[in-house]
Amino acid sequence: MSKYYVLLLAVMSMVLLNSIIACGEESKTITADDLNNNSCKIIGYLGKPLGEIIIIEATVLTKEEIKSKADWGCLIIAIEKINGENIKEPVRLEMQYAYDGVHKIKPDEEKIKYAGYESGEFTGLPHEYTNYIAPVTTQPFHLRTFFVAIKKLKDD
Question: What is the pLDDT of residues 55-107, one digit of tens each?
Fold first, then answer.
């Protein structure tokens, strides 16, 4: 009787493992139209759909706190609250301004509060680029997201 249960457990484990592996191999193709007509959404690093207006509270990072030299010329923030609620771990994103009229961060500001949204763009080179040109130092093709500020808010 115990051999039967061991065999049953082994078979069930193989089926479960196979389904887990298969999930990783599955992919869904979506088109640009799917994204543009809102039939599907991309969830960003902040846990919200890209383009959804949110209120963030964040710390402005100094050059010494920014790990990547490629980001040294960018405004990098560590987002700690979304819509007034603390998040588990701060999320580091580049911050951009939606238009020239948005009140900018002052040089001495450490803590900020803005209304805005997470957006993104595809950047980097696809793996197959080396079929056409010699390898270069770059990032692989990926979705890069950033926070777009639309209005500076005052602390409550």
Answer: 999 999 877 777 766 666 788 899 999 999 999 999 999 999 998 888 888 87
Q: What is the pTM of this model?
A: 0.77
Q: Is 94 exposed, middle or buried (0-12, 13-18, 19+ CB in 10 A)?
A: middle
Q: CA nearest 112: which of 79, 145, 64, 68?
A: 79
Tens digit of pLDDT for each residue in 128-153?
A: 999 999 999 888 999 999 999 999 99
* Cα separation, 89 vs 45, whole angstroms: 11
Secondary structure of the chain in HEC code, one letter for each residue: CHHHHHHHHHHHHHHHHHHHHHHHHCCCCCCHHHHHCCCCCCECCCCCECCCCEEEEEEECCHHHCCCHHHCCCCEEEEEEECCEEEEEEEEEEEEECCCCCCCCCCCCCEEEEEEEEEEEEECECHHHHHCCCCCCCCECEEEEEEEEEEECCCC
Are 124 and 138 a contacting pair, CB within 8 Å? yes
- How far apart are the C-alpha atoms of 61 and 110, rounded to whole Å? 8
Q: Report the length, in residues, of the chain.
A: 156
